[in-house]
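Quick start: read one record
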Amino acid sequence: MLYFAYGSNLHHFQMKRRCKDSVFLKKINLKDFRLTFRSKYRAADIEIKKNSIVPGALFEISKSDEKKLDVYEDYPILYRKHYFYYYGKKVMTYTMVKKSPFKYPTERYLNVVKKGYIDCKINKKYLTSALKP
């Protein structure tokens, strides 16, 4: 199945450790959404915003990888699944259930996301603007 990562799972080494079967395919943009950070975990989330984009990574993952991600993402308590179509193919991503106010991410978490942006060759300007609520 196809999975869209936009936060700490962009970090290739971490993603491989979490999901051994995962294969990074390419970077893509999710249209009409924007990146933010929230919850007591200060983690990445996406929310609907017209004419905005969230850059991220498209991964091929196995069923067992999906189960591991479900545990890691605290599905369905913290995150729920959101599906969209990319060139006719169904893609799964996670979005937070409770849309609480913006919370600046911890330095440790932010560094993992930054490394992910480098791994996936994503322009950091999207991350910089998400950090200014």
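The chain is about 25% helix and 40% strand.
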